[in-house]
Design a protein that fits this description.
Largest sheet: 8 strands, parallel, barrel
Helix content: 40-55%
Number of helices: 12
Strand content: 5-15%
Number of strands: 8
Strand order of the largest sheet: 1-2-3-4-5-6-7-8
Order of helices and strands: EHEHEHHEHHEHEHEHHEHH
CATH architecture: Alpha-Beta Barrel
Shape: globular
CATH superfamily: Queuine tRNA-ribosyltransferase-like
Distance between the termini: 27 Å
Radius of gyration: 18 Å
Mean pLDDT: 88
Oligomer: single chain
Structural class: alpha/beta
């Protein structure tokens, strides 16, 4: 893995990221944070996530137009933005009475529609592969290929809310084999999944906002202020992330020796 994006969804999270000088950030367009985000605080890479999970869960779709979304991407000077997708988590499908195939087809149609509108944007579009089972993702991949939707960067959706790391590993590894010349991103992937070398090596980039969930519990347990808890948890999270990077790089170096 070459790059990690810190997912920020509130002003306090942004302030913490700035204090730690973390330069690669992901902004969820559906969060309140998107209204107050200041690009000048971050000088490396800003990735805008369309917020497909929350939109699909609450509304079954998107509350803002594609024009509004693309205008936001341009206004904040984003470097990357995800094309709008429809997640396949069972809770969403059950709520709206849909199937994974229907959400995949909706994702395909929305990708085509957005790509027709974003030629003038400086930001690079990122396609989002959707599914729940391996079979779903491979079906989505086939449909993307048929429609010419395999971009230089592709992301894997619906992998951050899974109880089984073995399933996550299989999905990531399978798609990376199918897309070996594509920069693959893992949306919301956990550190527990990244501790597996096959997952780490299969991804070009990933993001997570899990550090802030932990800070809320830390605040309740310890009596720390919101800012102090956030800073404490981010320091712990980044320590774990750096340890994983070092461990995987060391393992790669050891494997490179030949006798």
């Amino acid at each position: 893995m070459k790059k990690f994006y810190l997912s920020i969804a509130s002003g306090s999270q942004m302030a913490t990221a700035v204090k730690f000088r973390f330069q690669d950030v992901l902004i969820n367009h559906q969060s309140k944070m998107s209204l107050s985000f200041k690009r000048r605080e971050f000088h490396d890479s800003v990735f805008v996530d369309c917020g497909g999970f929350s939109s699909s869960l609450i509304r079954g779709g998107y509350r803002t137009s594609d024009e509004d979304y693309l205008s936001y991407v341009q206004r904040i000077g984003a470097d990357l933005f995800s094309l709008r997708d429809y997640p396949c988590e069972p809770t969403i499908l059950q709520k709206w009475g849909r199937t994974a195939v229907e959400h995949i087809e909706m994702t395909v149609d929305h990708h085509i529609s957005l790509l027709e509108r974003c030629n003038d944007l400086k930001a690079e579009p990122v396609g989002v592969l959707q599914g729940w089972s391996i079979k779903d993702y491979l079906y989505c991949l086939d449909r993307f290929r048929e429609q010419g939707l395999i971009l230089k960067r592709m992301a894997i959706g619906s992998i951050c809310r899974r109880g089984s790391q073995s399933v996550t590993r299989k999905i990531v590894y399978t798609l990376s084999r199918e897309l070996n010349n594509v920069k693959l991103h893992g949306f919301g992937i956990s550190l527990n999944a990244l501790r597996y070398k096959d997952v780490w090596d299969s991804l070009y980039s990933a993001d997570s906002g899990a550090w802030d969930f932990a800070s809320r519990w830390n605040k309740l347990r310890s009596g720390l202020s919101k800012r102090e808890a956030s800073e404490s948890e981010l320091a712990h999270f980044l320590h774990r992330l750096h340890h994983l990077k070092y461990s995987h790089e060391l393992q790669r170096n050891l494997y490179s020796f030949e006798f």
